[in-house]
Amino acid sequence: MRDCARNRCWTARSPPGDGGRMPQLSPYRRLFRLPGARAFTAGNLLARLPMGMFSVSAVMMIAGTRGSYALAGAVTATGLAATALVAPWTARLVDRHGQARVALPATVIAVLGSLSLLLCVRHDAPDWTLFASYAATATTPNTGGMSRARWAHLLAGDAKALHTANSFEQAADELCFMLGPVLAAFLCGTLFPEAGTLFGAALLLTGMVLFTTRRATEPPVRAHISGRAPLRAPGIPPLLAVCLAMGGVFGATEVVTLAFADAQGRQPAAGIVLALQAAGSCAAGLLYGAVKPAGPAAARLPWCVAAMAALLTLPLLAAALTGSLLLLAAALLVAGMATAPTMVTTMTLVQERTPEGRMNEGMTLAVTGLLGGIACGSAIGGWTVEHLSPTAGYVVPLTAAAVALALSARAPSNRFTECLAPH
């Protein structure tokens, strides 16, 4: 591991004073013995939690005040599209000028957009102001990507510790998207419709201030950054295609599960069912980070995607054969266990293939691919539910996983197809 602030940081393998011997600690305890790791992680988690709150809060706030789910959905879709366009540019600025100089001002703009949305809804402003306000929140930095970039800087040369860090970050993502919607629904439902957006904006700004002020662990800004954009780097475009297909899995599963629960008159339970899926992924991510992965990430990815595709047959079978929401919840819990290992392996490959000095941009491109896939999956899943049935809708995420498997198997530098081919 490279030195940090003149040897103030030490490697995850050999803390000072142990005579070169590593005490018997869990991989996660070794990880957070690094100076500054706990501080920047705490700030990042505070800033990341609102990511699971904002869309739910906006829908509940707009629909509750204006009485139109169509308007609420259109506003949030506009924000998603704006984020897909703006996020890579924000990440590029972060790589060029540093996290503290770019991320905090970008966050302030996003928070002002959230507050503007709140005021426009509360004071019955014209509909177009809602679209403009929510589009402004697209400047929100990729908080998870910046945290992963710090780990990559601190743990350079220690592949095992970096694997543990990436697994923790994926588990944190799942935890935030599990708790965020529940917290947003609670605040909007028990206090006032704007409470979720207001609290989320406060959390985002507070967390980003805490995160960006921890300068000792921030990756250094390079005087010269490679002219090759991550999008043109070898191996990145196939990974983005895989991310697009995997996003289809997530988007379709969410919409179809909401429709399935609604068809049984139990729509409020859908949030718990989806939270169980995220819980399964969170638990699997922490376990995956505690074990030593076998083989290179490029060879592991197709097997992880294959496991995801295989486990996604369980929700389809539970819905088709039993129609039980309880059994569907159990099936999604198990199916979710393939998500984190797949995403950890994908992000590891993105880190390996992204040109030096462009880490935030590379990982944000992967997130953008996921967002695009989520939008497509939501649209296709919604069409299938409306024209066929909620049960048939579970074919959509399974199909998206099969597409991701085909793409990952055909990607360069993996031996998946070689293992399956006859000798």
UniProtKB/TrEMBL annotation:
What protein name is recorded for this chain?
A: MFS transporter
For this protein, the record's Gene3D superfamilies field holds:
MFS general substrate transporter like domains
| Keyword entries, A-Z | Membrane, Transmembrane, Transmembrane helix
- Note the superkingdom of the native organism: Bacteria
Membrane as a keyword of this entry, yes or no, is: yes
Residues that span the membrane, as ranges: 45-63, 70-90, 102-121, 238-260, 272-291, 303-321, 327-350, 362-385, 391-409
> Which classification does the entry list for the species?
Bacteria, Bacillati, Actinomycetota, Actinomycetes, Kitasatosporales
Presence of the UniProt keyword Nuclease in the record: no
